[in-house]
Protein 1
Amino acid sequence: MSIEHEEKDVELDSTGGSQPSLPYIPDDPPDGGYGWICVGACFTINCFTSGVNCVSSTSESLAYGVYLAYYLSNDIFPDATSTDFALIGGLNVSMAMVIAPLVTIITREHGAQLPMVLGAAITGVGFVLASYAHRIWQLYVAQGLLVGIGIGFTYLPSIAILSQWFSKKRSLANGISTAGSGVGGLLFSFATQAMINNVSLAWSYRISGIICCIMNSAAALLIRHRNEVVKPLQRGFDTTLLRRYDVLLLLAWTFSSMIGYVVVLYSLSDFADSIGLSESQAATVSALLNLGTAVGRPSIGTISDRYGRLEVAGILTLICSVSCFAIWLPATNYAVTAIFGVIVGSVVGVFWLTIGPVATEVAGLTELPSLLSLSWMVTFLPLTFSEVLALKLRQPSNAAHPYLYPQLLAGLSYVVASACMAELWRVKRREREGLQRL
């Protein structure tokens, strides 16, 4: 079972043996009240950051989904390569993570709302500038850097908020919140294609930017923290945490699971094309993945609250691995690929679904923002380069299994991640047992 909020740090003298480092949470979260308003606000933020990002990052053709499929099919950037598109797609997400120390410090000094509203504005500007891009470097700046930075400023401060409001329902609250990315992915995947067909590519970017700016700004203004009670440290780069074995295990889980996440998410649509599925079938697979995200995450949150956050995170990570090997690897038709899309949609984003509650279990509410900042930084390399690696590992000449090596990479990454989470669970269980013997 998960470590409850009543537990406090315990220090033993030199004759008392080991020193458990159970997190101390200084106040009993209300498990509701205005916290549900914050859940709705965070749901909206996920919808208009991660959800929109699904449109620009999920691999509809080679890298970018709806927008980039249009660029590729119309040869808008003749001097660009698939590696360029992969790097832009990676930067779009990784830039949001690498600025975590800066965002954490700004949040500490000025509260969560200022960086979140600023991020909403930057995201809108990035989309509008992308609508005017005629050279590939302009797309790097607008779609890769600006949109990514804007998403980081808006999304990152929201992650620690819900853990301050919820204890027994912490994973449920986070599950509902992160389901917004699936809802946003569904809405924008269909709406963006419709806007491109009926208005223009440029105006689809502009409309998306305006909508994201307005909705994220409104959600940010509704966010309320409980820092006056929790008193979080909010260090941008806390080196003292890096000396802890449990923190290193969490960061190793983060790194490994993120490799699998990027490879699966960014490869699925192009994999569907490679096995002969039609464009509409490939689009349906992506829609089913988003549907699985929207429907599955709240249910998983409830299960996590009941049976333990570390335990459920480890099991979900293992399910991701088994799904890659048992379903995705042998998939050769639409039905099996669609089933994989639904299943993987529910569990492939296990990191985003569980990182808030799991990090709270490891470090407590006081150190949560500092640990999250480290976690975001760890995701930079896999988010930036895993898609590029997957593209390089493809074997188009292998007609039977062109995605064999990316599939193996994803499955093995989740195996390593599940082993890290299993060890983390063992460590925290021993700490809990040590406390109970006192």
Note: The mean pLDDT is 82.
Protein 2
Amino acid sequence: MRFSTTYVTAGLLGLALAHPVEKRANSLPPVDSNTDESVLQLALYLEHLEFSLYTGGFENFTDAEYTAAGFPAGFRENVGVIAQHEETHADTISAILTKASKSPVPPCTYKFPYNSPTSFVDLANMITSVGIGAYLGGGALLTDDPMLLTAASSILTVESRHDAYLRAGVGASPFPTSFDTALTGTFAYNLAQMFIVECPKQLPLPILPKLTLKSPMPPPNLQPPTPAGTELQFTYDPSKFFVQPPAGAPLYIGLINMVTNVTYTEVTSCGDNCAQIPVPKGAAGAAFAVLTTFSPDAALTEDQLTQFGALAGPAEVILS
């Protein structure tokens, strides 16, 4: 199994020289509040992770390996271009924070479980979906200055193009849903933790108990879509819960997907510490599951689920 690193070798450097990024003298947007800084620090945290991911996807496989796996000509080179974009995003966010006398969060050391071009692209789709969700969720909080919201939005659209290109390359639909799924900062941060080996500095966000998707795993080319009614199984460790639910209390999975609110389904047992629900009708694309004691009647929003409703999670589920 091959794992990407945080270093850029001569191969990616040469690609960068072949595709130079235009430098413009535009002024950097201000950071006017603690909320602005929190959103930017999380965005930078995720951009560092994505830069390492895509650098590995470029360096760890040859053009011939991508071609043999069925990817179109030039795919590896474009993976390298995506890595450049992620580096530029990280550099720009760092510059915005530095200008505002804030210390940008440094890169971590990462470990990515892929061993082929196809498994790399499947993983990249999952991680990029988290990044897209974080920008969507964070953008709603950037209300202090329109220039900062515009900067974040311009990164979001590029991230979406990256994901569409990758999905098309692996044979999946480049646009599997009518809407993308927004994530709270805490949920996006927790989803990133599975790839972190160590960090010189973590963000001041809570680390929640894990919820792990047991089955089904997405097929190698993300096709066919997972139909409604398919049983999703998740495992968890109740000893890690921050609050222990009453004995015998029903548990639910809140499934965050697209622009609908959270869909709550009571779980059935699939063994010790294993919760099972059917895929709700209409769910598609990237969805995020959270274990909770709150029933559908409570109708918790994603923000409320983040603040006080989560027993464990989130777990990412790629449905199409």
Note: The CA atoms of residues 159 and 214 lie 28 Å apart.
Protein 3
Amino acid sequence: MSGAAYWLQRQRKADLHSLAQHTGMKDYADLLKPDLEVRLDNHLRANQTTFGKDPQLSGFYKRMVASPVRRDAGLTTALALTSGDEGVKKPKQRRQTLKAREEFEHPSENDTPPLSRALQPITPHQTNTSPSSSSLAFARALPLPASPAVLADRIEAQTTSFTTSLSSSLAQSRFTSTLYSLRTALSSPTSIHLLALFLELFFLLYTTVPFKYLTTFSAFPSLGLNSSISIKVPDLFALLSSHFWAPVGLWAATSVVLPLMAGWVVNFPHATAAAGGGGGGIDGVSFGVVRGLLAWIVYIRGVAIWGVERWESRGVVEGAVPGGSVGIVVGAGLGVLAGIWEAVLKK
């Protein structure tokens, strides 16, 4: 590489663009830096007479004039051989041969074969550590952040370990077995009927049994109680009055007693089991159908079954049960659908 080309190579690309614009070179905007250097070198050499005295290009032309001309080593050796001493005498060659033989037979202590020198250990003071190699070693010693793939693998490993430990802990405890047993118990028409009856009875008792004031707890700021708390308990004397038994008895007759009798009498599973030599209990489908029909007749249509139930009792039941009379019909219908679905699955 000539000195002028090396001068162009040391320039930045922006400076090369400025020189190309200054010298009037065209089609240089899309060139890469190496291509731009070559184009600009040829352009400046071709227009040396025009830009030779330009101060901005003085460094280029000075290095172009001062660039050494590489000589052919083979040509120089040939000229030296032809112009050298042609009359070299054989005794001189003989003396050189004897000297080489003496050096081979009697080597000096300072002479070490090249192979031995290669096998000798290198001491620290013999190594020349350059700034670039020391910088590279320092960079390698720096702790680098983990790549996204490594971070993802670590997170996945920790998640897998946590899931495995949680699964083993649940397997050793009775929580999983209890949960499965509860799910099995609730996945039946009988559970749906019992849940609906429990909700209706709870809200009916909450409405028909009043709460009586018992006492008041004073405020205890040290315990976090900043205001007094009034304690109320159910008034059990209401169980002796007709205001309690009239609505509760009406609800029990239409939602429990009569549907149970109908489910025992009209029992399709019992007929199937009897044909196979078995027995049956209460038919959930018949229970739900009769319960829904009675709720529609008594609470919606207002028909008196025995002629003794009062409108006040119907109003109390409808106001206490979630959804009123429609809620009772919906609960009975859900139990019927669950019983039909169970029968279909058993088939």
Note: The chain is about 65% helix and 5% strand.
